[in-house]
Amino acid sequence: MPIKVYKPTTNGRRNSSVDTFSDLTKWEPEKSLTTVLKPKSGRNNQGFITVRHKSGGAKKLYRLVDFKQQKFNVEAEVLAIEYDPSRGPRVALIQYDGGEKSYILAPANLNVGDKVVASDKVIEAKTGNRMPLEYMPVGLFIFNIELTPGKGGQLVRGAGLSAQLVGFEGEYAQIKLPSGEIRSVRKQCAASIGALSNADRRLIRWGKAGRMRHRGIKPTVKGKNMNPVDHPHGGGEGHSPIGQKRGPQTVYGKTAMGVRTRKPKKWSDKFIIKSRRK
Fold first, then answer.
1. 3-202 has which fold?
2. How sure is the predictor about 269, in pLDDT bands with cuts at 50, 70 and 90?
């Protein structure tokens, strides 16, 4: 997916780039595989804002992506590569031999007309195929990895990402995640083979606040520009320093920047072989 840069005819164009969508083969989504999700604007079931800087956004249909792919040993043909406004990578529209259609995350180099298959046994280690980790060769690049057998993929689902199967030990497979963390996952968990599509998405420069509002992201204001009642950094004349504090703080008064947010002694720590922190 190439990135297009326009001539700087305006201030917004000068610092922005766009996706060319040249890898898409179909523009309209499959109507039977879409639904409407009501935007929450960062609010919980009581109406309180729990995630800041979220509101609005362009109207969109949610694609029902199949993260489980439990229609085993049935070959499916790729009908189209489509855009999904709810995620970074492309989605592939596939059709099984019986005529049933489904959306899956599209790996890089998957083309219209290719055949993909999911299985609970040993199959060919080909891009787009899916099978349990215990049947994969060491060194393979994978994505959409399960943490619980049969629950569906939860890890490595972002544009351009892939993890690497680095070994086995007992009942567990060892996987090197994109963050550099090496983690143990049960061998019975399934994963798809390859690296996810749309790797150039991280190169897009959004350029102006208006494009971010279309994505549902509101502007973020520095704490030092606020009043003291609104932020620990607020107050003072002009761009004042943050005052007699040990370091930067969040809007809630907690230490920010460089502080570990993962809970100590979390139950899943036993599965982490090597932390992503160097």
1. OB fold (Dihydrolipoamide Acetyltransferase, E2P) (2.40.50)
2. very high
